């Protein structure tokens, strides 16, 4: 007697199709811009008729929601993979954290816009989609605490400095290094302000 299958192939195919739709939406965003993502373009890329997308996503904002979750989940995995390379000295670690985020952000401007800027005025991520970004911030706060930075104002300032450098790079020198080359200097200014010396090491 044959046993029961331990795989749900219908759910697997549905999950694969959703993944294809999300990838097609990212491709459209990369080529045309985040706000120019249309159901027709996405459907064409995955070989569907636009109405068929509604069997997988209730609306275009539902696709954006999935993209938002995907972007932050991708960065969460990226930052976790980078963690073993964290320098032992605190100032170098601050620079490292900043560089990990900066390079990820500038590599894909449309993704950064969805993750960090309110460029879609009628879109608000769901609690489920927002969860990976909360996980990213929780892990980041823990990393900063290892180096003695625990005050919320200091965490906020670090985020603002790095985000501002990303935005300046993308707005004024996309694909270049004008602000990228100044990132370490900006983080050194932050470290000076919060009292992190170059010799300080994590516990």
Concise description?
By secondary structure, the chain is mostly helical.
Count of helical regions: 8
Radius of gyration: 20 Å
Order of helices and strands: HHHHHHHH
Helix percent band: 55-70%
- Compute the number of strand runs: 0
| End-to-end CA span | 60 Å
Spans of at least 5 consecutive residues whose pLDDT stays below 50 are: none
Largest sheet, if any?
none
What portion of residues belong to β-strands? under 5%
Task: Please state the structural category.
Answer: mainly alpha
User: What integer is the average pLDDT?
Assistant: 92
Gross geometry: elongated
How would you portray this structure in words?
With 203 residues, the protein is mainly α. The chain is built from eight helices and no strands. It has helices spanning 9-32, 39-46, 60-82, 90-106, 109-116, 127-146, 152-172, 183-194. Helix 3 (60-82) packs parallel to helix 6. The chain is elongated. The N and C termini lie far apart (60 Å).
Short key terms for the protein model shown above:
mainly alpha; 203 residues; 66% helix
Question: Secondary structure elements and their pairing?
Answer:
Layout: H1 9-32, H2 39-46, H3 60-82, H4 90-106, H5 109-116, H6 127-146, H7 152-172, H8 183-194
């Amino acid at each position: 007697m044959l046993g029961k299958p331990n795989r749900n192939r219908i759910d697997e195919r549905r999950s694969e199709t959703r993944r294809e739709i999300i990838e097609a939406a990212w491709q459209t965003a990369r080529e045309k811009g985040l706000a120019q993502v249309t159901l027709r373009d996405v459907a064409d890329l995955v070989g569907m008729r636009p109405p068929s997308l509604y069997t997988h996503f209730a609306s275009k904002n539902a696709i954006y929601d999935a993209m938002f979750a995907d972007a932050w989940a991708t960065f969460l995995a990226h930052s976790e993979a980078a963690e073993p390379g964290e320098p032992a000295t605190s100032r170098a670690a601050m620079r490292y954290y900043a560089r990990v985020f900066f390079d990820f952000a500038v590599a894909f401007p449309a993704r950064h816009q969805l993750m960090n800027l309110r460029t879609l005025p009628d879109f608000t991520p769901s609690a489920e989609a927002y969860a990976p970004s909360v996980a990213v911030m929780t892990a980041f706060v823990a990393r900063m605490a290892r180096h003695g930075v625990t005050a919320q104002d200091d965490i906020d300032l670090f985020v603002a400095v790095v985000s501002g450098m990303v935005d300046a790079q993308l707005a004024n020198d996309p694909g270049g290094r004008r602000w990228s080359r100044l990132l370490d200097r900006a983080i050194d200014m932050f470290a000076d302000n919060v009292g992190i010396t170059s010799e300080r090491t994590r516990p």
